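[Automated response] Your request has been received and processed.

Submitted sequence:
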Amino acid sequence: MLAETICSAVSAAGLGIAAVTAYRKRFLTATRIAAYSLVPVGLVLTGVVKWVSDIAFKPSVWLGFGLLGVAWLLFMTTRAIERRGGGTRKERKAAARAAQGEAVAPAASAPSLGAGVPAAQPRRKPKKQGAPASSGDDFSDIEAILKKHGI
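Generated structure:
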């Protein structure tokens, strides 16, 4: 009952402020203030205020929220333990059996963590066309191409 009276008073004050704002020729702001001031009365008429006050002042409702919190906490704890432990008992047994097997596939010729491909050699910068060749290897490719075409 008290909450409904307070909401009605707040709405009446808001509508008064909206009227003064409209008198000052600020109609957009006055309309916005009127809209905000009608919200508390709308909440009272729909029953939301009564529902909230019933929730806030009943110990059984708070006990229900507490039990929901405990249930959520237990659920999250079991999820965390399941993730750390590797899942259900069947999944842990299957993982243990798989771990007893060989680390390398039977058909593999070398372990997967063995020596890899050697690092690539850094590229040499191409020489300018006008620079003289230091060895015959530079022209061997060109000679092979020319011989291929019959030149």
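Summary generated for your ticket: The longest helix spans residues 59-85. DSSP finds six helices and no strands in the chain.
If you did not submit this request, please reply to this message.
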